[in-house]
Amino acid sequence: MSWELIFGQLKWSSLVFTGAIENPSLSEFIASGAGTVAVLGAVASVILLTVKGWWVPLWRDWLTSVDHKKVGIMYIVIALVMFARAVIEAALMRAQQLSAYDSTGFLSADHFGQLFSTHGTIMIFFVAMPFITGLMNYVMPLQIGARDVSFPLLNAISLMLTLAGAILMMVSLVVGQFSTGGWTAYPPFTGIQFNPGEGVDYWIWAVSLGSIGSTLTGLNFAVTIYKKRCPGMTLFRMPLFTWTTLCTSILMIFAMAPLTAATAMLALDRYAGFHFFTNGQGGNMMNYANLFWLFGHPEVYILILPAFGVWSEVVATFSSKRIYGYTSLVYATMCIAVLSFAVWLHHFFTMGQSANVNAFFGIATMVIGVPTGVKVYDWLLTMVGGRIRFSTPMLFHINFLLTFILGGMTGVLLANPSVDFQVHNTLFLVAHFHNMIIPGVLFGMFAAVQFWFPKVFGFRLHEGLGRASFWCFAPGFLLAFFPLYWLGMMGATRRTYMWADPDYLPWFALAMAGAALILAGFTLMVVQIVVSVRRRAQLAAPLGDPWDGRTLEWAIPSPTPEWNFAVIPQVVSRDAFYEAKKAGHAYRSPVAYEDIEVPRNTATAPLIGLFACAWAFGLVWHIWWLVAVSFLMMWAVVIVRSFETDTTETIPAEAVKAANEAFLAAARAAPGVSREREMTSDNRGKALPEGLESLSGPVSSGAAVEVLS
Amino acid sequence: MSVSERLHPGLNLAGTDPEAHEAAEEVMFGFWIFLMSDLVLFAVLFATYAAMSVQGIADGPRPAEVFDLTAAFVETLLLLLSSFAFGFAMLAMKYRESGRGVLAWLLVTGVLGAAFVGMELHDYYVMVTAHGAPPQASGFLSAYYLLTGTHALHVSSGLVWMAVMAVQISVMGLNTTVKLRLMRLALFWHMLDVVWIAIFTFVYLFGVVS
Ligand code: HEM
Ligand SMILES: [Cu+2]
């Protein structure tokens, strides 16, 4: 049999290492170095898992799990690993641009092109998306008092599809090249005529896997929120993070389809000679621009809305106050979600539509500033008169408010088509969107990690190191991106790997310094996690409520038990847990316990992910037998699973009762910790509510939560 | 709220089983949302076709030159009849609790659906061979094949699903899980019908008229 039948277009020379041998240059060495790191990372993980005997627990407790909490944690792990890669790539690009004054620098143009393409693609699809999805997975069901999401298996499948896409991105580091088309992959540059290799195909299939996963997630979460809220949890009693999750889920349902269509059409153009976006025979790349941004603009709100939810929870909790303007925040969220579909065209003001069309979309874009402004005022007013604790999440929040406003104002500038014509395709734009997405989304997620970590793992993160990483991230961000506004206005174009204007040099140097600080911040964050794990005994907060939380998730032990709530709670107001604490109802024993049914672990989702990954790899390299086999296997797994009847297991009421009563007894007996001492080892997770310190001590028993019959 | 108040129309699996009703409510609602996202996909493909069928002709054939309205009409009838047959399958499920009745009607549905796909493939064959109109010929044809092809792919997966359900009815009987799956398959099948009506109207009728 011929090589091609078995291996498609794969050749020995596809391996990244051969480039360094055949054509030694620093650029190639860096590429092989990255490939080597990826391979070594994989090998090291295998060795670690083997030596420690972790394969079985990994498979049994994690990969096959359909528990929304574990799924959420796995999403966030993916996000952090991919962030490490993408942020190093960002620093590399900065270094190249610094070194490329009047010279070609140390990277080849093609290598630089791959860097901004992988950086952008990874940051959006494999850092930001998994991060928000993971967080929504963990927190939302707890906030609505549910035992699980509506479709746990589907949830695990979404995770595995995302993981498959992430793995494909990592494989592209070692086997073959990635696209040079940017994260937007505009044709005809990404068409087969100009880009015959495998690079664009990697982009297409990695992104498609991720977007299918996100569609399923959106569907799942929307249904969960509509159908699984606990009794009494009306829509307008939902915590704000849940609200933003709902709006994000709806956006996912609507926005991912245009992306899937666009990638499918691009694939048909490339694989089968169709003419959607080609230059000739009736193809039209403007169709691509429309489809892509019909997804792309809502996408930035898919990312930012959950972060807005996080900010609302953080600011209320650490100001020890009810959120100001709950209803207006909800309506603002809905407005933003709807408007996000009305502005996509601002991404191509310069591409030839009429002035009236541009004006319409410019105004529509500016209108989004209104609900966003409402939110900013609500957050500010929440702090007014509150008792603010400047813990790490709160520091991130205040930093967010200051810088996000600046980013928003540059957005309003860009929304003006005549301004956009001037700075289009310059670093001004790069500065603007990083200015929105880093303080907004990324720092939002970091704040969320600090905030909910004790809920997830039962111990707090080391506060000092958290602040230290904040003090790298915040100025690092300013240094890395504010110079780009100047550079943009001086005419420095984006995606440019070399330049010749001496005036740029100081600004590029500042930006480089900023990127280095950001790297340092990330390193400190990793150190913080490692140190906290080591000192977990001191930092333990098993009683579940270290920050004087307001919503239901803080009412249960940390880490959250498998069944979430021993008894489904009944709520009568917003901020249900806080109200219970205030009324002296918290930590009361329920009247009765019942058996709890939970879904059994299953290999279905990881197998689907595995075959999806193989399928995509086969497509990238035109290994047709692999494409056919893995596609059939994927559906075979689904069909076999559908014959499975024994998919749940029961946790007996006794076990639930024993665990829960032990927790309640410990919580009642604990002295509680005041807000001043919340960062000390006194904080075992029972907060004395602000202004209610007198209510400390054991509370009378009786039912706080009624059992449903 | 009592269980009966929360019922969706058409969810009456069997007279009086509150648990089955509750399971149905969530699962069916989820499937409606899935169908909605699928419809967004079709909407995007329709929009693409709308643009391409006007501006993407290039030097390829025009819509009126390649479409066979008679064939499309017969296909419409086949698909409508298959939906009708599926309706009978669901009636057999609900009122007669009869696995055999369901199987028989599913068979009718499947045969009609397969005939529909077969005819479409034949259409494609004729277009490519007789009219020289493969998808590679122009943007318009690319969009045409993608839109109708996506629909045909959906119908084909519906057929595979039907086959799986037939086995499940035989092996597992008409239990609640199987019933719920049949109900979802029914929704899916009817949605494909609706999408086809849109294709028939906007692609074939408009195409031949213009
Ligand atoms: C954390 C530190 C970060 C640094 C230092 C950084 C740096 C850069 C640089 C140097 C570029 C290339 C600019 C050019 O093309 O001239 C870039 C592009 C980009 N970045 Fe970042 N970035 C960071 C974080 C992020 C994050 C968090 C996201 C999104 C979640 C993101 C998304 C993007 C996107 C979408 C592009 C455009 C890629 C393209 O042109 O196709 N970046 N970034
Ligand atoms: Cu936009």
From TrEMBL, chain A:
Comp. bias (Basic and acidic residues): 674-687
Transmembrane segments: 29-51, 72-95, 115-139, 151-175, 202-226, 238-268, 288-311, 323-345, 357-374, 395-415, 427-453, 465-487, 507-531
Residues in Cytochrome oxidase subunit I profile domain copies: 62-572
Localization per record: Cell membrane
Keywords: Cell membrane, Copper, Electron transport, Heme, Iron, Membrane, Metal-binding, Respiratory chain, Transmembrane, Transmembrane helix, Transport
GO MF terms held by the record: cytochrome bo3 ubiquinol oxidase activity; cytochrome-c oxidase activity; heme binding; metal ion binding
Membrane-topology descriptor: Multi-pass membrane protein
UniProt cross-references to SUPFAM superfamilies, sorted A to Z: Cytochrome c oxidase subunit I-like
GO cellular component, one term: plasma membrane
GO biological process: aerobic respiration; electron transport coupled proton transport; respiratory electron transport chain
Alphabetical list of Pfam families matching this protein: COX1
Region listing for Disordered, in residue ranges: 673-709
Family listed: Belongs to the heme-copper respiratory oxidase family.
Name of this chain's protein: Cytochrome ubiquinol oxidase subunit I
Provenance organism: Ancylobacter pratisalsi
Automatic annotation (TrEMBL), chain B:
GO MF entries: cytochrome-c oxidase activity
Chain coiled-coil ranges: none
Record-level GO BP terms: aerobic electron transport chain
Ranges for domain Heme-copper oxidase subunit III family profile: 1-208
Keyword tags: Cell membrane, Membrane, Transmembrane, Transmembrane helix
SUPFAM superfamilies reported for this sequence: Cytochrome c oxidase subunit III-like
InterPro entries: Cyt_c/ubiquinol_Oxase_su3, Cyt_c_oxidase-like_su3, Cyt_c_oxidase_su3-like_sf, Cyt_c_oxidase_su3_a-hlx
Highest rank taxon of the organism: Bacteria
Compartments where located: Cell membrane
Family: Belongs to the cytochrome c oxidase subunit 3 family.
Assembly and interaction partners: Heterooctamer of two A chains, two B chains, two C chains and two D chains.
Task of the protein: Cytochrome bo(3) ubiquinol terminal oxidase is the component of the aerobic respiratory chain of E.coli that predominates when cells are grown at high aeration. Has proton pump activity across the membrane in addition to electron transfer, pumping 2 protons/electron.
Protein name: Cytochrome bo(3) ubiquinol oxidase subunit 3
Bilayer topology term: Multi-pass membrane protein
GO cellular component: plasma membrane
Keyword hit for Calcium: no
Segments traversing the membrane: 29-51, 71-91, 103-122, 142-164, 185-207
